[in-house]
Write a structure and sequence with these properties.
mainly alpha; 2 helices; about 65% helix; about 0% strand
């Protein structure tokens, strides 16, 4: 088939394994997930009053970094 030709409607592209990509993404998000949970508990502790969401997040990130360095 020439590059300018369109594939047949019933022709499926070859599936490529995404296992490595998925596992890398999960590893990258694991830290964010931990920070999100910690930030949630910080918000809960202050009664979920709006306006301090970023502060909760940044404190949770700092706590996670401190924990990693131990």
């Amino acid at each position: 088939m020439w590059k300018s030709e369109k594939p047949d409607a019933d022709e499926q592209p070859e599936a490529k394994p995404v296992t490595k990509l998925v596992s890398k993404n999960l590893a990258a998000h694991t830290g964010d997930e931990e920070v999100a949970v910690a930030a949630y508990f910080k918000a809960e502790k202050r009664g979920f009053k709006p306006g301090n969401e970023l502060e909760d997040w940044y404190e949770a990130e700092a706590d996670a970094e401190l924990e990693k360095s131990k």
